[in-house]
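Lab meeting, item 3. Inverse folding demo.
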């Protein structure tokens, strides 16, 4: 039953109740029942319109929220719900536009979002009058109505701009062509009114009450002006095709860019209003925010329309504006009298005071909100300079005109516009400007400020991670570093000498401490030296061949890291960071002092210095110039200090970084870590327990433990007290962190098996954890197959006796249900099982062997490689358990299975079908050991009293002749190398992460033992074939045998006669 206007009252009461926490649940349930009924949205709109019912606006705001959610659920017709009727929709759309001028800003925002969501669905087909109606409302004299209209317009354009179909983009371009001119005219008018109002406020002088009242009235104009800027930005960015792709200039940029630059400069001039009247602080905050929006619009416009900036002669004015803003002194810094002079004792004793004196206004985290807003403005100025420097369109080479072409090609036009832009850039970026810009970036924006040092002291870990975070679009210092790096890429020859000279002057002004205990005051020279180090580190790639790093490291960086004065933490941290940045230069005789200096900093009293040393130490250890022998003398101390550092830090990222370095040390040091195994194993349990609920940190612990097991090799049982609880937890799919930890747990498990000298009860019992993992999915099949193979090798008959049922069930579930690569893994596993247990395994694997037989004989989606490799598994059974194979191939169940799968051709026996398919696919197996296995098995089949054998004697001997040629000349069997024990590229060992193709340590010995008894490697094929041919003649009779031999090609007969 449809709802009517009379139902608005009960719904209003439910909305009121939903705002009360005590009755919220029951009210929401009742509203959920209402929202599926026709007319619900009309009732909500009625409630929104009745402003007298709700003085606070809470229920009306909630009604708008429910209306918005109903748009998402019911505006489009769906089968399961009635939705909003087609008769109701026009009424709702028209009524919504009449209600947008709501005094309550929260309700107004929700109404704007409502209109935007409906416009995304209905415009332009069902709602063509949307934009004409909005334009009509924009032309009224009611300031509230025009402000709300721009609010709606902004949200609608925001919603429509996200539609990416070409037809929707064309529609947006049409909307832009209709709205841009009236919106632009309105913005120009509002800008003039806004500047006049601001000037009047500035002239008000000391009359703070009158100024505050005037500012309150001006704020509505400011909000409308800001919405107008956002609307223009969306139209500039999404309403015109990119001129880089279309080579069609955007003509409106010629008037927009100069006007935006002038407006931004004018607004910046009024930022001192709050110093005259503190009540005007909100207005000043708006002014800074408005300047940011203007610059953000220019940055976005340039990224999409670079040629329009160059061709319309607005590129140079914009560059000049941004350059001047970046290079001039920040006017939002506190007055000079409010900060201590650099020469005062306060500046020397207080790092914060010295920082403030060294770089006023260059803080990433300024003291006042207005300063923070102006930092965002400076970031946008830097982003524009970066956008120009990295612009691909300006680097395109010019192309010649095609003779006879009526019009120039697009590539020719792009080249012409690109050349025009390059000329403007060359005239702007003179050597003097580049040097000045680079110097300002270093001396003002890279210098640590009072706020930085205060945060360093109050929360060092947060400070450290913020400094290392990539925030070049959000933070002033990272943005300055990114701009400096781009300048070095473009003007390395100009900037390199200037920066080197600045570095020399900084070192002279703040020389390295004469001794580790020397007094180090925090002076502007010291902070500038830190900034200069930062610049050299950022541009290390471009300065690689310019800086004499060896002498700099010896004469400056080492003394800086050695000084223990508390104020010297600034240089200790920066010098340690510099070593990590210039890691490619730390080689030869520099490695040992670098290790010694960084490891000593691991015991520093300052956490920021410690964590910086950890990061740089990781870079050195992970470098190509790392040698274990050089690091070995410091190994014990480094591991001990790293675990001490781990106990001091509390942030998750810090713990992760330290554990990662410990893990890397274990990996790179190899066997040299074994003497420290007890110390590491005694510390890891505490780290594991403290990292509960942090799976990423626990993964690092497991990786460290895995690398330690690899280093321990046969001594890996030392880790079992810690290892098995971790394995049981990480491989249990019922534990809450299994999604993150299961993969690493399986790899740790596999490494444990490969290096286990013998099976132990805990390791045997752990196999049951693999069954539910494989039952759930085959996602981890490669490592799971490797684990099963390792269990087969290390477990012996006891493992097969205890877990044969589970093992066969998992293999049977995989065979035939996975893709080719996975099938090759499983086939290799089955081959290993039969090779290790030739008597016990084939009967247990009968269902698997039957599936392989069907795959070999019948039509299948698998390739010849998979079918040929599957045949080698049955060949293994023939060779090592021929009596079972005879029963298997002649069993009634096998015949019935082949018939069920429609693979039996007439009444052909299974042996004949198998032989035909096998002989057809045998050439797809290219590994010599596998080919020899097939030949040996075929030779064994010659002794079976089956007529099908003699019928195919010529084909069998043709295969065997190939193995005769591949066998050793003197017919003596040779054991293969340990890394090639009968495995091809599909071997499980080659599929494990890490790329270690060859088995290692204890598992290597077990593989060699299995290979030592494998007939493929022990039997000389020539004498073996001769023996089986003689037995074949006895079994089948000489007459039948000679008749079959008559069909054998003469070259093969000659080859056999030489045996």
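The presenter then showed the designed sequence:
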């Amino acid at each position: 039953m449809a709802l009517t206007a009379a139902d608005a009252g009960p719904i209003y009461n439910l909305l009121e109740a939903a705002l009360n926490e005590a009755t919220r649940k029951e009210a929401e349930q009742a509203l959920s029942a209402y929202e599926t009924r026709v007319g619900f949205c009309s009732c909500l709109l009625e409630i929104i319109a009745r402003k007298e019912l709700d003085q606070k606006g809470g229920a009306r705001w909630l009604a708008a929220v429910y209306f918005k959610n109903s748009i998402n659920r019911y505006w489009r017709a769906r089968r399961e719900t009635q939705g909003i009727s087609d008769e109701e929709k026009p009424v709702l759309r028209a009524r919504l536009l009449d209600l947008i001028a709501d005094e309550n800003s929260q309700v107004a925002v929700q109404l704007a979002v409502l209109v935007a969501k409906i416009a995304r669905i209905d415009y332009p087909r069902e709602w063509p009058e949307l934009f004409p109606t909005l334009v009509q409302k924009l032309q009224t004299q009611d300031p509230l109505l025009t402000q709300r209209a721009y609010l709606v317009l902004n949200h609608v354009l925001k919603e429509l701009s996200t539609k990416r179909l070409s037809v929707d983009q064309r529609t947006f371009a049409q909307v832009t062509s209709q709205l841009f001119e009236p919106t632009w005219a309105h913005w120009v008018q509002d800008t003039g009114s806004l500047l006049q109002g601001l000037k009047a406020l500035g002239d008000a002088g000391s009359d703070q009450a009158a100024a505050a009242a005037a500012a309150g009235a001006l704020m509505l104009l400011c909000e409308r002006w800001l919405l107008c800027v956002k609307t223009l930005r969306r139209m500039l960015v999404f309403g015109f095709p990119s001129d880089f792709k279309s080579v069609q200039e955007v003509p409106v940029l010629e008037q927009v860019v100069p006007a935006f630059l002038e407006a931004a400069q004018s607004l910046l001039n009024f930022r001192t209003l709050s110093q005259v009247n503190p009540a005007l602080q909100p207005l000043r905050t708006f002014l800074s925010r408005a300047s940011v929006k203007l610059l953000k619009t220019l940055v976005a416009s340039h990224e999409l329309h670079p040629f329009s900036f160059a061709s319309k002669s607005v590129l140079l004015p914009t560059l000049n504006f941004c350059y001047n803003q970046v290079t001039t002194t920040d006017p939002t810094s506190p007055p000079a009298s409010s900060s201590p002079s650099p020469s005062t004792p306060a500046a020397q004793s207080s790092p914060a005071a010295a920082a403030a004196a060294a770089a006023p206004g260059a803080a990433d985290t300024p003291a006042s909100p207005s300063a923070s807003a102006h930092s965002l403005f400076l970031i946008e100025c830097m982003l524009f300079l970066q956008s120009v420097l990295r612009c691909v369109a300006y680097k395109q080479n010019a192309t010649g005109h095609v003779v006879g072409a009526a019009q120039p090609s697009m590539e020719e036009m792009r080249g012409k516009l690109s050349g025009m832009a390059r000329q403007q850039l060359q005239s702007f970026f003179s050597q003097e400007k580049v040097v000045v810009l680079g110097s300002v970036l270093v001396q003002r924006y890279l210098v640590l400020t009072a706020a930085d040092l205060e945060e360093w002291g109050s929360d060092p870990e947060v400070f450290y991670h913020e400094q290392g975070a990539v925030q070049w679009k959000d933070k002033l210092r990272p943005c300055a570093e990114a701009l400096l790096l781009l300048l070095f890429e473009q003007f390395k020859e100009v900037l390199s000498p200037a920066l080197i000279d600045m570095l020399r002057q900084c070192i002279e002004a703040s020389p390295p401490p004469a001794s580790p205990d020397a007094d180090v005051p925090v002076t502007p020279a010291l902070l500038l030296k830190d900034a200069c180090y930062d610049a050299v580190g950022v541009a290390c790639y471009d300065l690689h061949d310019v800086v004499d790093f060896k002498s700099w490291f010896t004469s400056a960086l080492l003394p800086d890291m050695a000084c223990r004065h508390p104020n010297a933490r600034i240089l200790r941290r920066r010098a340690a960071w510099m070593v990590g940045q210039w890691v490619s230069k730390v080689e030869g005789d520099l490695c040992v002092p670098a290790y010694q200096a960084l490891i000593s900093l691991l015991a520093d009293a300052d956490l920021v210095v410690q964590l910086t040393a950890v990061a740089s130490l990781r870079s050195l250890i992970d470098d190509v110039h790392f040698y274990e022998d050089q690091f070995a003398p410091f190994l014990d101390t480094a591991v001990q200090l790293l675990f001490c550092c781990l106990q001091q830090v509390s942030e998750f990222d810090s713990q992760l970084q330290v554990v990662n370095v410990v893990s890397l040390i274990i990996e790179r040091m190899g066997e040299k870590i074994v003497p420290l195994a007890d110390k590491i194993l005694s510390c890891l349990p505490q780290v594991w327990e403290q990292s509960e609920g942090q799976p990423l940190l626990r993964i690092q612990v497991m990786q460290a433990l895995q690398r330690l097991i690899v280093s321990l090799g046969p001594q890996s049982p030392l880790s079992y007290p810690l290892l098995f609880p971790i394995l049981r937890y990480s491989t249990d799919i019922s534990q809450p962190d299994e999604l993150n930890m299961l993969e690493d747990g399986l790899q740790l498990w596999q490494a444990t098996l490969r290096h286990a000298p013998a099976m132990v009860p805990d390791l045997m019992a752990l196999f049951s954890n693999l069954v539910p993992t494989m039952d759930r999915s085959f996602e981890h099949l490669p490592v799971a197959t490797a684990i099963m193979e390792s269990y087969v090798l290390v477990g012996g008959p006891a493992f097969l006796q205890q877990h044969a049922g589970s093992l066969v069930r998992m293999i049977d579930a995989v065979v035939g249900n996975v893709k080719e690569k996975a099938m090759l893994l499983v086939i290799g596993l089955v081959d290993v099982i039969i090779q290790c247990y030739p008597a016990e395994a084939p009967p247990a694997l009968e269902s698997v062997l039957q599936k392989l037989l069907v795959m070999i004989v019948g039509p299948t989606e698998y390739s010849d490689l998979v079918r040929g490799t599957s045949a080698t598994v049955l060949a293994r059974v023939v060779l090592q358990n021929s009596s079972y194979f005879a029963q298997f191939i002649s069993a009634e169940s096998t015949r019935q299975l082949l018939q069920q799968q429609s693979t039996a051709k007439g009444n052909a026996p299974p042996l004949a079908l198998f032989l035909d398919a096998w002989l057809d696919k045998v050439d797809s197996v290219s590994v010599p050991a596998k080919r020899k296995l097939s030949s040996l098995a075929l030779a064994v089949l010659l002794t079976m009293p089956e007529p099908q054998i003699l019928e195919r004697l010529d084909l069998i001997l043709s295969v065997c002749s190939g193995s005769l040629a591949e066998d050793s000349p003197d017919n003596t069997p040779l054991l293969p190398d340990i890394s090639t024990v009968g495995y091809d590229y599909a071997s499980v060992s080659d599929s494990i992460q890490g790329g270690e193709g060859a088995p290692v340590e204890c598992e290597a010995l077990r593989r060699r033992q299995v290979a030592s008894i494998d007939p493929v490697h022990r039997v000389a094929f020539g004498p073996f074939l001769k023996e089986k041919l003689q037995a074949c003649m006895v079994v089948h009779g000489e007459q039948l045998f000679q008749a079959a031999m008559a069909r054998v090609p003469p070259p093969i007969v000659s080859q056999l006669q030489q045996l």
